[in-house]
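SAMPLE LOG
Freezer: B-3
Tube label: C17
Construct: single chain, 205 aa
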Amino acid sequence: MKTLLAQCCCGLALLAGHAAHAVPTYHVSIDTAGLAGRGLMDFTFLANAGATPATAVLNNFSGAFGAAFDRSPGAAGGIPDGIVLGNQNGGDYLTQFVDLGGLFSFDVRFDGDFATTETIDESQFDATLYNDDLTAYLGGTGSFAEFVLVPQLDGIPGQVLASSPTGLANVTQAAAVPEPSAPLLALTALGVLGLVRRRSSCRRH
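STRUCTURE (predicted):
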């Protein structure tokens, strides 16, 4: 019974820890109605030398994406299935042809311990529109979506700073999946304890 109780308590502690460290997802949408023809949409994840290892996970793509134009060796997956980019050893990128004139969107989240690791080095993810030979920006100079991963510093937890430098995109934090609250965890613990006591009582009889 003691072993079972210890295992249950450990599981509840892990559940509580997961609730406290939920990873936010960001939704990026961009309207290219003011643009025409073919262009390139580039996704790049870079970091300063001492930045904590992290990955950018992109999925839920929509819009007129075409074939891949170029990618780094470490970039995994593709559009529309999903992309994983790392920030180490020069970072990763994926550049995709797009047919302009409509709406595009995707979701992105960042996995890693940057928010709880003490360092001064940041990581940055950018989504940018170029013309079809990468010689000029489209829709404004710079990235249409930018995410700066600020690490923990002097005990202050890190965070993700999201923005649209060109003003062309709408960047929002997607609704978080509801996590178990403290009262729910407490009720779960009582239920587990009740089950353990019942099993012990049955064995005595």
